[in-house]
Amino acid sequence: xxxxxxxxxxxxxxxxxxxxxxxxxxxxxxxxxxxxxxxxxxxxxxxxxxxxxxxxxxxxxxxxxxxxxxxxxxxxxxxxxxxxxxxxxxxxxxxxxxxxxxxxxxxxxxxxxxxxxxxxxxxxxxxxxxxxxxxxxxxxxxxxxxxxxxxxxxxxxxxxxxxxxxxxxxxxxxxxxxxxxxxxxxxxxxxxxxxxxxxxxxxxxxxxxxxxxxxxxxxxxxxxxxxxxxxxxxxxxxxxxxxxxxxxxxxxxxxxxxxxxxxxxxxxxxxxxxxxxxxxxxxxxxxxxxxxxxxxxxxxxxxxxxxxxxxxxxxxx
Amino acid sequence: xxxxxxxxxxxxxxxxxxxxxxxxxxxxxxxxxxxxxxxxxxxxxxxxxxxxxxxxxxxxxxxxxxxxxxxxxxxxxxxxxxxxxxxxxxxxxxxxxxxxxxxxxxxxxxxxxxxxxxxxxxxxxxxxxxxxxxxxxxxxxxxxxxxxxxxxxxxxxxxxxxxxxxxxxxxxxxxxxxxxxxxxxxxxxxxxxxxxxxxxxxxxxxxxxxxxxxxxxxxxxxxxxxxxxxxxxxxxxxxxxxxxxxxxxxxxxxxxxxxxxxxxxxxxxxxxxxxxxxxxxxxxxxxxxxxxxx
Lengths: 317, 294
Ligand code: FES
Description:
The complex is a heterodimer of chains A (317) and B (294). By secondary structure, chain A is an alpha+beta fold. Chain A is 43% helix and 11% strand. Chain A is built from 15 helices and seven strands. In chain A, the strands form two sheets. A five-stranded mixed β-sheet of chain A has the order 2-1-5-3-4. In chain A, strands 6-7 form a two-stranded antiparallel ribbon. In chain A, helix 7 packs antiparallel against helix 8, helix 7 (171-181) packs across helix 10 (220-233) and helix 8 packs across helix 10. Chain A starts with a strand and ends with a helix. Chain B has two domains: 2-122, Glutathione S-transferase Yfyf (Class Pi), Chain A, domain 2 (Up-down Bundle); 137-287, Rossmann fold (3-Layer(aba) Sandwich). Helix content of chain B is 46%, strand content 10%. Chain B contains 13 helices and eight strands. Chain B has helices at residues 16-29, 47-50, 52-68, 79-94, 96-108, 122-130, 132-138, 173-180, 204-220, 231-239, 241-245, 259-267, 284-290, and strands spanning 2-6, 32-35, 73-76, 118-121, 147-150, 184-185, 225-228, 256-258. In chain B, the strands form two sheets. In chain B, strands 2-1-3-4 form a four-stranded parallel β-sheet, sandwiched between helices. The two termini of chain B are 29 Å apart. Chains A and B meet through helix 6, helix 9, helix 10, helix 11 and helix 12 of A and helix 2, helix 3, helix 5 and helix 9 of B. The structure holds FE2/S2 (inorganic) cluster (FES). The site of FE2/S2 (inorganic) cluster (FES) has 12 residues of chain A, from loops.
């Protein structure tokens, strides 16, 4: 009979080790079935969490072969097919503190979430008596972000968090800030946006891990783009991220293409660039990778490109 | 085989060696690349932060230019360009209201997005259109003994609903091409890592740390060089490597090749012909260790 070999990362509070289990393969099961079978039939000391078994409570996320999944709604057959193997390595989510085996600690993350004021700051356009009515369209704005079940998959896979857990916010926290900032019943979107900006919003690497692995398909990277846009509309332009984004935006309007030579200066300013980027620039010039005397020419049809900019402004207003 | 070609901004300056090697390899393989007249920057994953509608519009314009050439596919050699163009295409094809709105702007300047052209990457085209068997037949100098570490880069894999050429958690395309060229592929932790390039300004400290990790991981696995299908990954890992080294005690030196350069070597071009001498981290010693096609 076919067997699945599971290597599970164990942790008892001080020591960590990998333990191997073999489970007879059964068709049409879930990852949670696999873990439960091990605990019930082979090792009652194995710790993992789960409750609803319906992708609602968000407690069962684990990493398998280096990728985070929700155990209860992930078909075992799909994982076997994806990795083309019957050998699966289980680890707890990354970027969380581990209590025991596959169990992680949520409290510090919930504390951190308070930074973005994850609650509604009601507008003046409603009251207890009249209620806070929303149009259908306004409701749809919050439909996707409220799907979040706080499973932690996004945080586990976030490449910025892996190297910067203290400074950066977990994608699910950014989602929560977005959820209230776009809510038509919230009267103080700035209250959610400002802490997001102050907690290194511009450090998102665009690696697309969160949006690719979210079991609820929440468009997290679009939300991050929206948060950035909104902070710029608030006038928060004096930071590297905003200046960098505008350097691209303006270069395309001017010439159609990026001026790589000027990019650091537009992003960091002349003085900072001179202080920090000189060795980089010199080695680039030496290899012919930057030609300080090369300025991109206007692309053919630049008038049309600029007309698209005008048009985009018109339709927005 | 004929494609509309979207080079992207880096190929005009910092990664000119990718332009050189792509053209050499394409012509040796009999692939005709017709550069789009008047292409603009794809937005490089930044313009949508300022104006999402504009980002969709400029790439719909780029795709419309390709459609005018009457080809089936628009080909790029950059992960991020591919993702930006495909993002715009997916929105245009799926969202009728947006399509009409964007097309009104395009019509004003005498263009129309019809949705007739696919957006692809050279890596995909080699597998899907050219075929690995045919690629094998063109190899003149098998890269025997060369241990390559394939660094995919995020944007050729994710998000899967936009990219979707292969499973983003376990891709094989780079290995298939490298093996067809006779090279040996090493497995390493950071194979699907992120280079961090898009935040190298606001997150300089973190990204330099990542660069060091991305170089050490294949080094520990015994690789001679990294190969990547993305010029932005290449620039981050190569040009910033001396800066990243400052944060590490151990030597992180790792040469970084563009995918077309690896192919070019197997086709019998010299490193100079493929402009491998334009890299910041000298790749020639690593190539001459196991093999050098001269
Ligand atoms: S057990 Fe509740 S989400 Fe999986």
